[in-house]
Amino acid sequence: MGRRFLVVTLAAALLLSGCASTGNPKDPLEGFNRAMFTLNDDLDKIVIKPAAQGYEAVLPTVMGHGVSNFFANIGDIFIAANDALQGKMPDAINDVGRVLVNTTLGVLGFRDVASELGVEKHDEDFGQTFGAWGVGEGAYIVLPFFGPRTVRDSFGLALDLSVDPVSNMYPISDRNTLIVTRVLSDRAQMFPAEKILDEAALDRYTFVRSAYLQRRRNQIFDGNAPRNRNDEE
Amino acid sequence: MNPKYLVLLLLAWFAALVQAQTPEIAPDVLVKNVTDEVLQIIRSDKDIQAGNSKKAMELIEAKVQQHFNFTHMTQLGVGRDWKNASAAQQKQLADEFHTLLVRTYAKALTEYKSQTIAFKPFKMNAGDTDVKVRTQVNQAGSKAIPLDYYLEKLPAGWKVYDIEVEGISLVINYRESFAAEVRSGGIDGLIKSLQNKNKTGASESKKG
Fold first, then answer.
1. How close, in Å, is residue B200 to chain A by CA atoms?
2. Does A206 map to a domain?
3. pTM (2 decimals)?
4. Crossing angle for the helix pair A191-200 and A49-58, nearest 10 degrees?
5. Which residue in the set B107, B162, B177 is minimally distant from A202, CB to CB?
6. pLDDT means over runs of 10, chain A (233 residues)
7. Residue numbers in B near A187 (CB within 8 A)
8. Which residues of B touch A223 (CB under 8 A)?
């Protein structure tokens, strides 16, 4: 389902391109993207944010951490796979170790024992792997629901979802419960950042776009992106 | 010997002596001292924890802002349009951006829960005038967030001119919005937008 959804979106974005633009060469679809950004914001305001606030209010903080740890532990399996695909074997071994420790000692991942022991968590996905292989990022695109991506990261996301154990779980009812829980847990974690963003940004769309592109570039360089502040990008 | 030279020599010697008596604080020590001091204050301040942005701003104005080079930050944020701005416009830009950054920083402080800051190993060569001090925000239940400070050595000591959160440079992140404002309304348009932003923020925080 995820993949077809992405293909339709990319096609729609291409059809709607050529709208007004602030002239960022990385954002040729700005007209479409701004519309989608607003749509996502509205969806968030009406449905997701209130639900996430409810989730946070109902669940004690400790349990909230447990739930986010549980999903993070599942994520570590794929982070390890992506480490391996990028040839970072020590990281891959580190991350397999994290999954083993957290699934057993951490009771199915609800407690992040590995981090407590100083085994560092990494951050990888298929989009970063493509980047590490030298695939260019392509145009910036705001996907419905998923939000900011680049064309490369959209393909990465499709792969991430196609191997995601939560999205591929049966029965469907359990799968849906887990997906909704994960969305709410992730969203609740964003509350502080969101308030700071509202305070900081002159134009939220542009601010989020710059931040996304900067952050992805840094992730691909594993935190050591070469930088020249005087570049006029 | 001309007595004028003697006076100059005495002055130079005196200046050297004064400098030797006030040893300069190393950039990593500066970041650590200020971080520790601010964290200690927030941890014991129930008002800031409850979201009192005004009090957080006062804390920043008293303890933090003197360690920042706001003019340099503004110059980097504005990018290529900076040199097209008059001296008066540059000053206005820097003042407004200063306010915006302090407000944003204050908002971040009110979101403080129980995070701790870890300081990563720091090394610099003698004579370096531009350094990066790496820290990391640790919080229970989620991945640590890298928080890096860029400092430059000025006559008045080390000053921060950029902050990077997870590789996102705060000043560079403003560049595109600033450029768009300048394209549509010139430098004065950007100044106006910043003023409006700072004003709306002010009324909002009064409500809160």
1. 10
2. yes
3. 0.83
4. 130
5. B177
6. 63 56 82 96 94 91 88 94 96 96 94 90 93 94 95 95 89 91 90 87 94 91 74 49
7. none
8. 146, 167
Pair of tokens at residue B207: 């409500």
- Residue A14 to residue A8: CA distance in whole angstroms: 10
Q: Write the CB contacts of A21 (distance below 8 Å, at least 6 apart in sequence).
A: A27, A28, A30, A31
- B115 CB neighbours in chain A (<8 A) are none
Do B173 and A214 make contact, defined as CB atoms within 8 angstroms? yes
CA dihedral A44, A161, A149, A77 (to 10 degrees): 110
Contact predicate A78/A163, CB 8 Å:
yes
Tell me which residue of A92, A64, A88 sits closest to A78, measured CA to CA: A92
Predicted pLDDT at A14: 60
Q: Does domain B3-207 have CATH number 3.10.450.710?
A: yes
Task: Decide if B103 and A199 are in contact by the 8 Å CB cutoff.
Answer: yes
pLDDT digits (tens, 9 = 90+) for B123-149: 899 889 999 999 999 887 677 889 999
pLDDT of res. A88: 96
Tell whether A129 is covered by a domain.
Answer: yes
Q: Do A206 and B166 touch (CB under 8 A)?
A: no
Minimum Cα–Cα distance from B190: chain A residue: A202
Q: Identify the domain containing residue A202 by its residue range.
A: 27-220
User: What pLDDT is stored for residue A12 in this prediction?
Assistant: 65
Counted domains in chain A: 1
- Structure ipTM over 0.90, yes or no: no
Q: Please identify which residue in the block is written with the tokens 């303890």.
A: B63
- Average pLDDT of chain B is 88
Which of B48, B176, B182 should we substitute to test contact with A (largest number of A Cβ atoms within 10 Å)? B176
In a domain, A132, yes or no: yes
Close Cβ partners of B162 (under 8 Å, ≥ 6 residues apart) = A229, B73, B76, B149, B150, B169, B170, B171, B172
pLDDT beneath 70: ranges in chain B: 1-3, 13-23, 141, 201-208
Of the candidates B151, B123, B146, which has an alpha carbon nearest to the alpha carbon of residue B135?
A: B146
Query: A119: alpha, beta or left, given left = phi > 0 and alpha = psi -120 to 50?
Result: beta
Write down the pLDDT at residue B114. Answer: 84
User: In chain A, which residues have their Cβ closer than 8 Å to the Cβ of B200?
Assistant: none
Would you call B55 an interface residue with chain A, using a CB distance cutoff of 8 Å?
A: no
Name the residue facing A207 among B80, B177, B201 (closest C-beta): B177
Tokens of A62: 């400790």
